[in-house]
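Researcher: Sequence recovery benchmark, item below. Answer with residues only.
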């Protein structure tokens, strides 16, 4: 079988060279036009609303800030999921949009709905949108170093794992 392929290639040199040039050109074209990202962003399109209400307990923030914001954001076009979290002093509302939604379009829609609900929030509550970044861009690096020499590696590892 191999012998027949070699014989055919020798007999049809011009065709073999033309096919080689054609495939090389096609591969260069494909290489140039294939979209490639070193770290693909697989995260959802989300917009975060952080509201600070100083000195308030989580239950008060839940009732007066998080709940009104969450219910208002359910009406944002393209929103798939709305999640609200209440903490001491702070409320976070995460609006997750369907795949393919433009991040800046989503942020502008959230701002529109936030401007409608902002007058109903308590006087001390201040709302702001989170940064226009995805979860892929949030990387936190640190080094756990003992400059005093009082801890060995196993103790540093325990600090890392438990604290």
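Model:
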């Amino acid at each position: 079988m191999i012998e027949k392929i070699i014989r055919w290639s020798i007999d049809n040199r011009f065709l073999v060279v033309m096919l080689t040039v054609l495939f090389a050109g096609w591969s260069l074209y494909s290489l140039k036009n294939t979209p490639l990202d070193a770290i693909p962003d697989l995260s959802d399109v989300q917009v975060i609303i952080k509201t600070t209400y100083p000195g308030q307990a989580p239950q008060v923030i839940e009732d007066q800030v998080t709940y009104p914001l969450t219910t208002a954001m359910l009406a944002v076009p393209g929103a798939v999921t709305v999640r609200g979290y209440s903490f001491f002093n702070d409320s976070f509302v995460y609006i997750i949009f369907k795949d393919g939604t433009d991040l800046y379009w989503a942020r502008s829609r959230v701002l529109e709905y936030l401007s409608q609900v902002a007058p109903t929030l308590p006087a001390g509550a201040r709302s702001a949108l989170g940064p226009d970044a995805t979860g892929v861009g949030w990387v936190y690096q640190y080094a756990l170093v003992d400059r005093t020499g009082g801890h060995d590696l196993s103790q540093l590892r325990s600090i890392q794992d438990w604290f």
